[in-house]
């Protein structure tokens, strides 16, 4: 199992390390990549001066770069965010022929749509090669919370934005984490923002606040703020009152996250107790699968089968000294052996379940974990 390299850091805004350390702050996530399995760790603190929640120690840029470069992503799938809102947001803010850059554009799904509509759009991965152009609008969607030293990144980004050009940033909203059942506390997230701390970070990085986009956001429980590339005249510093609120809200989520780990453990122990003539299938090779697999006993680890739509692209499944092949789900369920299928995909669970029922797997033999 691979690990990232970590360095101790200070608050990237205040350059100080005067913090409150959260209880239960150690978060671990296991992710598949094309180069094998990574175990990520995160330890959260909150800066008592500006209320920013950050991970200390922080992964080094280099090791983070290696991880994201090899992270397994499904390039074929359409994004799981609201693509219509993304397009409406762009239309509202800039005219055609404007230059748009999306950072962290994944499979360029949005970029290709925008090009068809007449925008000069480009996409790039996190921290990939330097771009020399200057853009009218830069879009950063659910990415800023992943990267080391966001202030340094944002200052550098000004080189690619025209004077008074727009920077639109969307991040998960710490004060609404409770509404989001996805993976907000994944150890990939090393920064946690409220509207106020996000705004403060941007203003301290040389941008001025333009407006808050309320209607056209790409995911629920998110904040989308739009900034202009010019120095802010007045900078709003988050208050002590907010500090207490942020500590309370985030501590709550950390406590819930600890319980989530127990849910993985409980599901695994249920699977450990299934009769040995029943073959356990996992549909979906992802972090949820790995978290459950982690708690299986050795015979179940060796006996289970993994299926994934991307079976032919995944290499090197090797975890806890168990090496396995990943199978094509389309021809994996035709034999008459007894099966129990665990659906690990959050996004496609409904479709997969329908598919399994068509393949004559009984409802009682399908598990859709609720997290
Ligand atoms: Zn600070």
Provide a descriptive summary of the structure in words:
This protein folds into three domains: 77 residues, no CATH class; 155 residues, Rossmann fold, CATH 3.40.50.150; 106 residues, NAD(P)-binding Rossmann-like Domain (Rossmann fold), CATH 3.40.50.720. Helices cover 28% and strands 28% of the residues. Strands 8-7-9-10-13-12 form a six-stranded mixed beta sheet. Strands 1, 3, 4, 5 and 11 form a five-stranded mixed beta sheet that branches. Helix 6 packs across helix 7. The protein starts with a strand and ends with a strand. Bound molecules: zinc ion (ZN). The site of zinc ion (ZN) has 7 residues, from loops.
Task: Give a summary of the structure in a few sentences.
With 371 residues, this protein is an alpha/beta fold. The protein is 28% helix and 28% strand.
Key terms:
3 domains; 6-stranded mixed sheet; 371 residues; single chain; binds zinc ion; 5-stranded mixed sheet; Rossmann fold; alpha/beta; 9 helices
> How big is the Rg?
22 Å
Q: How many separate structural domains?
A: 3
Task: Report, as a whole number of angstroms, the end-to-end distance.
Answer: 25 Å
> Which oligomeric state applies?
single chain
Q: Regions with pLDDT < 50 over 5+ consecutive residues?
A: none
Structural class: alpha/beta
Average pLDDT: 91
Count of DSSP-assigned helices: 9
Strand segment tally:
20
Give helix and strand order, one letter per element, not per position: EEEEEEHHEHEEHEEHEEHEHHEEEEEHE
Examine the secondary-structure arrangement and name the CATH architecture of the largest domain: 3-Layer(aba) Sandwich
**Coarse shape:** globular
CATH class of the largest domain: Alpha Beta
Strand content: 25-35%
Distinct bound molecules: zinc ion
Main sheet: strand order: 8-7-9-10-13-12
CATH topology (fold) name of the largest domain: Rossmann fold
């Amino acid at each position: 199992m691979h690990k990232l390299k970590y360095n101790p850091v200070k608050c990237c805004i205040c350059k100080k390390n005067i913090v409150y350390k959260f209880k239960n702050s150690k978060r671990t996530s296991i992710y598949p990549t094309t180069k094998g399995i990574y175990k990520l760790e995160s330890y959260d603190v909150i800066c008592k001066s500006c209320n920013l929640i950050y991970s200390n120690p922080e992964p080094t840029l280099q090791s983070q770069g290696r991880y994201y470069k090899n992270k397994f992503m499904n390039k074929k799938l359409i994004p799981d965010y609201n693509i219509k809102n993304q397009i409406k947001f762009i239309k509202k803010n800039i005219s055609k022929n404007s230059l748009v850059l999306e950072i962290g554009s994944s499979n360029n799904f949005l970029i290709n749509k925008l090009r068809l509509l007449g925008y000069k759009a480009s996409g790039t991965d996190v921290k990939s090669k330097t771009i020399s152009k200057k853009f009218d609008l830069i879009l950063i969607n659910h990415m800023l919370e992943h990267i080391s030293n966001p202030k340094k990144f944002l200052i550098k980004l000004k080189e690619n934005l025209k004077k008074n050009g727009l920077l639109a940033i969307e991040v998960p909203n710490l004060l609404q984490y409770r509404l989001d059942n996805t993976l907000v506390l994944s150890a990939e997230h090393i920064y946690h923002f409220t509207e106020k701390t996000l705004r403060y970070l941007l203003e301290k990085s040389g941008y001025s606040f333009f407006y808050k986009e309320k209607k056209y956001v790409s995911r629920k429980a998110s904040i989308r703020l739009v900034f202009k590339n010019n120095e802010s005249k007045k900078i709003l510093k988050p208050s002590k009152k907010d500090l207490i609120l942020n500590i309370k809200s985030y501590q709550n989520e950390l406590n819930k996250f600890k319980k989530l780990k127990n849910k993985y453990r409980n599901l695994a122990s249920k699977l450990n107790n299934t009769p040995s003539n029943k073959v356990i299938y996992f549909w979906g090779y992802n972090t949820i699968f790995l978290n459950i697999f982690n708690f299986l006993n050795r015979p179940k680890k060796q006996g289970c089968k993994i299926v994934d739509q991307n079976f032919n692209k995944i290499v090197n499944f090797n975890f806890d000294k168990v090496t396995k092949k990943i199978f094509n789900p389309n021809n994996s369920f035709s034999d008459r052996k007894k099966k129990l299928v665990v659906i690990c995909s959050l996004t496609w669970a409904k479709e997969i379940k329908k598919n399994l029922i068509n393949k004559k797997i009984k409802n009682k033999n399908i598990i859709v974990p609720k997290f």
